[in-house]
Amino acid sequence: MQQSSDLTTGDIGEHIKKMALPAAIGLFFQAMYNATDAYYVGQLSVTALAAVSISFPIYFLILAMGSGLGTATNALTSKARGEKNFEKAKNLAMQSILFAIFLSVLASIVGLATADVVFSAIGAKGDTHLLALEYMNMIYYGLFFFFLVMVLNGLLNSIGDTKAFGYVLVFGFFLNIILDPLFMYGGFGFPAMGVAGVALATVVTQIISTIALGYKVVKNNLLFFSFKPDLALWTKLATQSIPVTFQHSSVALGFLIIIKFVSDFGDNAIAVFGIGTRIDQLLILPAIGIATAVVPLVGQNYGAKKFGRILDIYQKSIRYSMIFLVLAIIPVMLFAENLAAIFTTNTQITRMTAEYLRITALAYISTAIAIISSSVLQGLIKAHLSLIFTLLRFFVIGIPAVMLFAYFLGLREMGIWLAILISSLIVALFGYWYVLKTIRKLGPSL
User: Fold this and answer.
1) What angle do CA 230, 232, 238 make, to 5 degrees?
2) What secondary structure does DSSP assign to 274-308, as a single string?
3) Which of 64, 112, 226, 357 measures 20 to 30 Å from 106, CA to CA?
4) 0.85 exceeded by the pTM?
């Protein structure tokens, strides 16, 4: 059985390529999974689509909690493996699973008890309220598996395995195409469940993912089977995971605030922002894949005290991201109208989306630098510092820039696109300087 993949030796570029590609492909299919859900829910009714949409902030917050714990598990076990302390790594792995179980049960109980009040507070009414409850209650019943998937993926990432989760996401996408209509409309002995069926399809996918990833974790001998909670390790996991949770939640809040600003300039502007951000997210997937590889690479080398290698990881990750993104930026600049036309037949929205893309494409590289910088800090067990980048991008720089360009200078939605670009550039410059400073503090000769 495999004890560990040693990321403290070997060619850094090969390690990055081996981990980044499966991660990026998996993320692409995850995006397609979400699009499939939106498509099928839209076939039910406008009310069903509204119910799922109004549930999204709550659903995202739950995923942010799970993702934070997964990242903490990845970083801490990677560091232990870099130290060659495999017993510590396996104990951390088991404790992260126990902590995930505790948090998921607690979140499920709280969620089920408060769902009615929460949906009323955020403005869900009538049938939308009822359908939102049906959808989220089903998610709460299966929350245990959502958290376990995040933690098991973090454990596999810590040994450089991103393929397992990538395969799971690809399989989940195709399975979801079958399960969504089956559970929504019924058939083969299943009752028609409507919007709750979409949630059930997601839960079933998570159950299968848990089994598949759990098998890989056990096969690779990554666990020390002890079911006694270690509160000291739970505290360490919480300390590392809470900033990541806040970081993801802050991103969601930041985008909600930007959407509010965009809505001041009409439905066309909202449509442009919706189309444009979808294209942006797809095109920066290679950089996100590379950032996924960075956490275990930095974590293991931090544990091994190979600080010069951490600097190489950071610089090569940025260099590879820049190569991919330049290859993305050039066609966006040349064919922005063609890209926009894939999503709309409205000529005005096509033109406006092309303007959006030609501005925000210039921020792709800076966005990648910020994401990779954040991943380096997570690998260095300094997740609380990575939260600074998100707060700067949206709240310290972003919102004032929007107020200046969109309102004070009267540039309307074009001012918002410029604010996104400028805030991304400033945060990237700050992040690059800050991470270099942090790494060089580890080794005076760097």
Assistant:
1) 100
2) HHHHHHHHHHTHHHHHHHHHHHHHHHHHHHTT-HH
3) 226
4) yes
